[in-house]
Amino acid sequence: MLDAGPAFYLATSAFVLAGLSWCRQYWDNRSRLSVPPGPPSLPIIGSILSLGDTARPWLAFNDWRSTYGCDIVYARLLGKPVVVVNSEEVARDLFDLRSLIYSDKPHIDPEDVASFAVDFNATLMPYGDRWRLHRRIYHQQFRQAVIPSYHTGLLYSAHKMLFSFLQDLTDYTSHFQMFTFSFLMSMTYDYEPKDKDDPLVRIMQRFLELEVTALGAGAVIVMETFPFLLRLPTWFPGATFKRASVECLKAGQDVKEIAFQDFKERMMNHVTRSCFVADSMNKMNGFEDSIIETAIKETASITFGAGSETTASTILVFLLAMVLHPEVQAKAQADIDRVIGKDRLPDFDDRPALPYMDAILQETLRWYPVAPLGVPHATTTSDIYNGYFIPEGSCRVDLPKGLAMTHDETKYPSPDEFRPERFLQEDGSLTSDIVPLSFGWGRRICVGRYFADAALWIAITSFLATFLIHKALDEYGEGIPVIPKFTTGVVMHPETFPCRIVPRFQGASMERLTQLTGLGLSVSTAYEF
Ligand code: HEM
């Protein structure tokens, strides 16, 4: 090789020079390139004034798309660079095709107590080895192929939800919440919560509340990505925030340890069945390897937070759509009666024969995505996209899928209307559009999406098979109008609305439901509220 001669050295030098010249040109271009268009920026506050309703930033993000005529918009918000991705095409290009650059998450200041409180949450975890291990554990348990193994458990939780409705036809929010608590706790720890006050549920909820509303996921995302949201309102003074951080740290310990230790004790006594923790510990040798055991403990503790509010909120959106659209409800119930009849309840085997129910589910996810901003991604290096410079590191890349993507008029005409038909072909079969938009993108796409899909389908189909929902009546017997209003936050849901839920069939009773479910449930074993 050393004797390769002048030709070799000349070729090598030419190659190196060409490389250097390319790099030079690249850096020169980069320094000349501008960031994507966006709202005017003032010193210190950046573009906050252009946001309008700061509690619903996705509305402004969506407007910026037409104002700046671009699907990718750049803004500085109180010193933080934010790149807003406003179309499916750009999201696919960046998050799917350039996932190596766009899979990080906004970094939480390590000095902050909050960073310890939520550092085991995969949703917020920096892109790296720890996240990869967590993702592998989730993937093993939630990949599409294993979802049928959860069907029996999901069906059981859905049937319990029906019993709860028969007991109390008014408290629909609690029934949907309890449905999610039931399937998440039994799927994760083989633990069946007795009621909303169940001690393990309370521990999980306490952490979730602190994480979402007081501190963690919600506030950290808000703090890191939309700090203007924190600075504007007066109800979030610094002292409260510090106290909440410490509380969240303690709650985070509880959420990891208590349910896991409870599970281990039951396992020692050989009274546990297959579930997320049991299967992961067995498959990955968690009993021998403390790093694996810790990762399983952490991943398990997050399933409740990641899956409960998102799923229950989506079912509430469905309920709102049904009260506003009796014609959709009637069509779905006619389908259910035709396929299933009245002598049994829906099962997962019925799903292929009920495309209209799937269309309702897809339309629900599209109409009001419950996580309209998704969870922000961050770039690990700078990038050039379509001639625009995307800054490195601290750049937060947001996903306002709430409106820009799921309400894209070219793809979904009259996007504010609830029309399940948009997901059906002329012959009544489903289109290939499955709205993955609600579940994120690329390597960080929601790892529980197939599981959530199964849970949502069985919940809404079982509900429509058994109950009717109407407008509530005023004192004159007139229907009370329902005006949709939504909470704000990282996960949002419809505010409580008046409605009247009634059993579909005469003679619907606990006994009849016991017969139909075949699970031996009775008044005494249904949830108590
Ligand atoms: C309707 C229900 C659900 C919705 C709308 C939803 C939505 C999302 C979204 C938007 C993300 C962020 C994706 C991104 O960063 O691009 C996410 C991440 C995640 N979700 Fe879900 N989710 C749902 C249910 C669930 C369930 C049932 C589970 C688990 C049992 C789950 C577990 C997770 C986890 C672990 C992540 C973090 C993934 C990662 O960063 O690698 N989700 N979800």
TrEMBL record:
Question: Does the keyword Kinase belong to this entry?
Answer: no
Q: Where does heme bind?
A: 446
Q: In which pathway does it act?
A: Secondary metabolite biosynthesis
Provide any one GO MF term from the record.
iron ion binding
Recorded hits in Gene3D superfamilies, A to Z, give: Cytochrome P450
Q: What cofactors does this protein use? A: heme
Assigned keywords, A-Z: Heme, Iron, Metal-binding, Monooxygenase, Oxidoreductase
The entry's family comment says: Belongs to the cytochrome P450 family.
Which PANTHER family does UniProt cross-reference here?
P450, PUTATIVE (EUROFUNG)-RELATED, P450, PUTATIVE (EUROFUNG)-RELATED-RELATED
Protein name from the UniProt record: Cytochrome P450
Task: Tell me the organism.
Answer: Rhizopogon vinicolor AM-OR11-026
